[in-house]
Amino acid sequence: MKLLYAPGACSLGIHLLLEEIGAPYETEAVNLREGAQFAPAFTALNPKSKVPTLVRDDGSVLTEFPAIAFWLARTHPAAKLLPEDAEGQARALEAMDHVVSSIHMRGFTLMFRPDSLAPTAEPEAAKARGREIFTRGLEVANQALAGKDYVLGDFSIADAALFYVEFWGAGRMKMALPANCQAHYARMLARPAVQRTMAAEGLEA
């Protein structure tokens, strides 16, 4: 397998799942700031011009964080990244969708690229709305973590998604995370797979 990723982006979550699985894989960094995601070599693999992008061993390509995470979990059951029951799997997908669709794609995007979602809005107002969505999303995650070490109780693909927005909040924006999210973030940083991933991407908590 080969993961095309941007250091510190949402692909961080997929990167750490590959480390959790322990299967052989390669990585290729994509410089989003320089527009490498729009280059023909990249769009030939993923015309959406997004990371993460996973090239599987048979040459087929899988895109979108939840789809890649789900596939990795289902094809590597020994890693126990996904509950076996339908209810547990639905809850993992529910948590991931909230992180990716709301906290990330709405909250974070409005904060840092307000014109992309609200081109006619006043930029500072759009940024404030983004921070509100981001903060509220973390509060919801905080409530879900009450009394638990991980989102579903045991570590799963949902934790990889939550981790990357916790990293953005605490690591990049120096925000104070809600208490349960802060404990989860610290717990994630202590995992060997996360430490290897952070080192590989040149990141510091």
Q: Overview of this structure, please?
A:
The chain is an alpha+beta fold. It has two domains: 79 residues, Glutaredoxin; 106 residues, Glutathione S-transferase Yfyf (Class Pi), Chain A, domain 2, CATH 1.20.1050.10. Helices cover 56% and strands 7% of the residues. The chain has a four-stranded mixed beta sheet, covered by helices on one side. Strand 1, helix 1 and strand 2 form a beta-alpha-beta unit. Helix 4 runs parallel beside helix 7 and helix 7 crosses helix 8. The longest helix has 27 residues. The chain is globular and about 45 Å long. The relative contact order is 0.14.
Key features?
alpha+beta, Glutaredoxin, Glutathione S-transferase Yfyf (Class Pi), Chain A, domain 2, 56% helix, 7% strand, globular
In terms of structural class, how would the helical and strand content be classed?
alpha+beta
Name of the top-level CATH class of the largest domain: Mainly Alpha
Biggest sheet: strands, sense, closure?
4 strands, mixed
Report the sheet-strand fraction: 5-15%
In which range does the helix fraction lie?
55-70%
Give the number of helices.
Answer: 9
Shape: globular
State the CATH architecture of the largest domain: Up-down Bundle
Question: Care to count the β-strands?
Answer: 4
Number of domains: 2
> SSE order, as H and E?
EHEHEEHHHHHHH
Low-confidence stretches: none
CATH topology of the largest domain: Glutathione S-transferase Yfyf (Class Pi), Chain A, domain 2
Strand order, main sheet: write it out: 2-1-3-4
Distance between the termini: 27 Å
User: What integer is the average pLDDT?
Assistant: 94
C-alpha-based Rg, rounded: 17 Å
